[in-house]
Amino acid sequence: MSTTIGDLVDRVYREYLESPDDLVSYSYLTGGIDSTATTLAYDDGLFSSEEEDALGAGTVIEIDQELMYTTALNVVNNEITVRRGARGTTAAAHSANAIIKVSPTFTRKAVYDAVVDQIENLYPTLFAVETQSITAKSGINILNGATDNYLVTPIKAISQYTDYDVGQDETGSQFRGVSVELVQLPNPFTYTNDAGASVTVTYTNGPSVVHALQNYGITSGKTIYVTFKKKFVEPTDEDTTLVAVGLENEYEAIIMAGVAAQMVAGKDISTLDAKYLTDQIAVQNAPIGSSNQIRNSLLQYQQLLIQQARKDLRARYPEPVSMNNINYPSV
């Protein structure tokens, strides 16, 4: 299973977009470069003489998510002169041993963007879940965590009515449902905190809203454990973890199938790539035949996975009863 968005991008390539038999020309940087370097040192042991001949001026190469145009090749010193940040990509620093791909069929930037698109499109069919520990107040609780603007609605809230005392066993402790309401406030929002100081909450990424929680039927100062339905958090780069986004392991296959469908749509892919994709779809027991296009088969497979994940969500998190915008736990 993947840990980061970058791992998920790699998995899409490995399982869908790059056949093991596909002879993609590549090499490695033998030294790191910054965002302004225009000369790249490469390992000459991986390029054939024909591939080096193909690296003449105007060839597109890729390192990480950056595309570059070659302007000259020095086969004596194993150096490529390039123009940085081609085709709308951004010049960035790259480490030694980073892979150099020559004229990639599916660019890493495009695959990364497709992963982000697929994550955003999962909601509202699927959603992330987050549980927070919140101290009950007589007024409203401003929720100003880094991604609290992605919260949608409470789906469960419980509180411990009897506190643990030192040396006391747990026999007398009870957890009971609590009624809560999620309030949407304008972004930015300024309020006076418990210490009398003026505080402004502002979100620059994600939904333009500030959230607050109101509780009912619970004494102030008690701890409430609130489980929220949440939109998936948009990744900021390949190092973003799947946990930070809110993705569960079972959602990886959904995203990969959607990315593969998005990448092959309208593209004249090679016979070899088409066969590899067909074989991968068949392994997943997804329907495919002469009347099905690869993209449609991928989308059918994705929808099957989404239906299974949605059933699981409904079983684990029944929708609460809502009256006058106040959520009453259903369990």
Describe the structure.
The chain has 331 residues and is of the alpha+beta class. Helix content is 26%, strand content 27%. The chain has 7 helices and 17 strands. The strands form 5 sheets. A 6-stranded antiparallel β-sheet has the order 1-6-3-4-5-2, with no helix packed on it. Strands 7-15-9-10 form a 4-stranded antiparallel β-sheet, with no helix packed on it. Strands 8-14-11 form a 3-stranded antiparallel β-sheet, with no helix packed on it. A hairpin with a 2-residue loop joins strand 16 and strand 17 (326-328). The longest helix is centred in the C-terminal third of the chain and has 23 residues, at 294-316.
Summarize the structure.
The chain is built from seven helices and 17 strands. With 331 residues, it is of the alpha+beta class. The protein has a six-stranded antiparallel sheet with strand order 1-6-3-4-5-2, with no helix packed on it. The chain has a four-stranded antiparallel sheet with strand order 7-15-9-10, with no helix packed on it. Strands 8-14-11 form a three-stranded antiparallel sheet, with no helix packed on it.
